[in-house]
Amino acid sequence: MIKVALVNPINGDASRIGTEGELPVVVQPHPPFEEEAIYLPFRQYFTDNGEASGSIDMRVAATAADPIDFFVTAKTDTDIFIKTIAIVISDAQATLSKFGNITALTNGVEFFFESQSLGTVVINESLKTNFDFIQQAAGQPAFGAGIDSFRAQNVVGNSEAYLPVIDLAALFGTPYGIKLSKSTLDRLVFRVKDDTSAVDRFDIVAFGGNLRKIV
Asked: What does the alpha-carbon distance between residue 96 and residue 147 come to, in Å, rounded to a whole number?
């Protein structure tokens, strides 16, 4: 029998095997420091198939029993780092206590990260109102006053809109945001569990970077 040991080349520490025979690892949220790669801009809408080719229109007739996922999925050739998420909820006379200008959602929109290695990490169980989305974004960007707080005018025709921007790095202390590892089933998801079809506009776009190896 050949015995081997995995040794850290920097400090000489050997890897340890757990009590159930497993090899503990740490999933790093940042790009590899020693690999020659270029960090390129990434932008993609959350879509119904996870790819840029899918539908971006999140105004759907979903239910708790039959939800509809809008997501960004991992790619086959590059690691994706999602740092910022920009949301648009537009409807005439929209107010903070509603979703657009319809009654607050019953089941809401679930926001979660699905990792092939770590399982599902729920970020928000139920976003039901315009204010819920703004709170998830830590109140950013803040503008306007009174009933026009956080509300932009004439975004879709004469309809107002709430435009919360989620800075994942600021919220969770991960400088590069959430990593979708290449060639995995990793995905970042907004799961719609109500009928959102009555508002004028509802879509979400992700910004970040993708890591391409220099060859």
From this structure: 8
Q: pLDDT digit string (tens) for 21-79?
A: 676 665 555 555 555 678 899 999 999 999 999 999 999 999 999 999 999 999 998 99
Q: 202, 167, 205: which is closest to 46 by C-alpha? A: 205
Longest dimension (CA), the chain: 75
Q: Parse the chain into domains and list their residue ranges.
A: 37-213
Q: What is the pTM for the complete model shown?
A: 0.82
CATH class of 37-213: mainly beta
